[in-house]
Amino acid sequence: MAESGAEERARAVLEPDVFDYYAGGAGDQTTRAANVAAWDRIVLRPRVLRDVAAVDTRTTLLGTGVATPIGLAPTAFHGLADPEGEAATAAAARDGGTLLTLSTRSSRPVEDVATALGPAPWWFQVYVLRDRGRTRDLVERATAAGARALVLTGDTPFLGPRRTYAPAAVRPEEPAGQEAPDITFDDIAWLREVSGGLPIVVKGVLRADDARTCAASGAAAVWVSNHGGRQLDGAVATVDALPEVAGTGVETYVDGGVRRGVDVLRGLALGARAVFIGRPVLWALAAGGAEGVRGLLSGLNADLELSMALAGAPAISDVTPDLVWTPPAGGIR
Ligand SMILES: Cc1cc2nc3c(=O)[nH]c(=O)nc-3n(C[C@H](O)[C@H](O)[C@H](O)COP(=O)(O)O)c2cc1C
Fold first, then answer.
1. Among 214, 237, 303, 333, which has the minimal tally of Cβ within 10 Å of its Cβ?
2. pLDDT tens sequence across 82-141
3. Active site residue: 11, 32, 227, 230, which one?
4. pTM for this one?
5. Atom of ligand 1 lying closest to residue 74 CA
């Protein structure tokens, strides 16, 4: 797969095992590649003559106002990319009005990241661990530090088969196999209780039936993801799963292979309320620290604004399913 400029710069500065850990997918990396390629199959139907002099990307996620529907997906161990780790990422997210999702596997304590964010909203990603007491402690700390929602990762009962599970620098702290393989939909209610009632988002949903069961079990939203192709290799590309999940009417987000503003536009048109990015943030952080991430976020949002303008959609509410072209029944003549 061709690398972006930022990815090439990150490769040049990162230890090879760290680069591998960040970049890699599971198995033959089929799903990792499919995530990126699938966006290009979504063909758009732009509108004309719609006054796009002012384009506004603001929206709300679980009732919280954000400057952009582009959010930061949870990714582990930012300290491998920058000495400030997640505090650098947080400062950039705060300045961009971008929602940060902090990983359970943060290099920095959750309290430090909350301080770097100030009043900016953020969510905390939860791996339910075999040690439920440790999970409860983490959730209680995140709640006390001001997380606005919990993102329960549902696709990791075991780690997928990857070439690098954790780089040498973190391996001693991170014994393999801590994830609880027996998590169920009942853990949604458990997390709500432990957090004193925070909204729960379930991440890793790829099917409408699962989205409905999540909602019936108390989830506020679902997040279409295959973990950046790091879990079940051969799983559907996220953009292909998105219409079925969003079609349930449950609030839906998506990540996986989003690299350009037009991909964000496609995701929103297919029914996502927010679109999250993973690896591009790590590349920007490695190559340029907080400033690098600031540049990534402002550049991507400017790219989204231009895509919205050219599609004839000056506000997020104008990004509707009719922007997606579908082949005429009976085929193309
Ligand atoms: C290095 C790396 C670490 C990740 N760590 C986590 C994690 O701790 N928790 C989680 O729910 N997802 C994790 N993910 C998955 C991301 O949240 C997200 O689903 C994925 O990266 C999106 O795809 P993209 O990288 O193509 O944008 C990780 C992904 C990568 C690449």
1. 333
2. 999 999 999 999 999 999 999 999 999 999 999 999 999 999 999 999 999 999 999 999
3. 227
4. 0.97
5. 17
